[in-house]
Design a protein that fits this description.
3 helices
């Protein structure tokens, strides 16, 4: 852990440079190695083809990011990471935001270790 899931509407797919965004978001998490082991970081993007925004009368778009982490991080650490991730989103989408209707949002999803199953040998590379 952590996992980043970026959902975005298909009407902006040609303008959002999704690979670059995923790299920037991973870089934010990598900058907190005492909070998030590098080998556990995952990011992915899902292009949404079926959606409706507001009243549906405009070509509105949105990007919603979900940061999933296991329980146990300090509140201040979570706030710092989320603030930095959202600022990264705002910066990445600033030009597009100035040209069209666009909603940006992010949520933190924290869950207990019970009920999750993991096996990962990627961590060994970063020891």
């Amino acid at each position: 852990m952590p996992h980043i899931i970026v959902e975005y509407t298909d009407n902006i797919k040609d303008d959002i440079r999704i690979e670059e965004l995923l790299m920037k978001m991973n870089d934010v998490l990598i900058s907190y190695p005492t909070i998030f082991p590098i080998g556990g970081i995952r990011s992915r993007a899902i292009e949404l083809k079926h959606y409706r925004v507001a009243d549906g009368t405009e070509d509105d778009a949105f990007v919603h990011v979900i940061l999933k982490i296991g329980a146990g991080r300090k509140g201040r650490d979570k706030t710092d990471v989320c603030d930095k991730l959202f600022a990264t989103m705002e910066d990445h989408f600033a030009q597009l935001f100035s040209k069209r209707y666009l909603a940006l949002s992010m949520e933190l999803s924290e869950f207990s270790e019970s009920g999750t199953y993991k096996k990962n040998n990627i961590h060994n590379r970063f020891k």
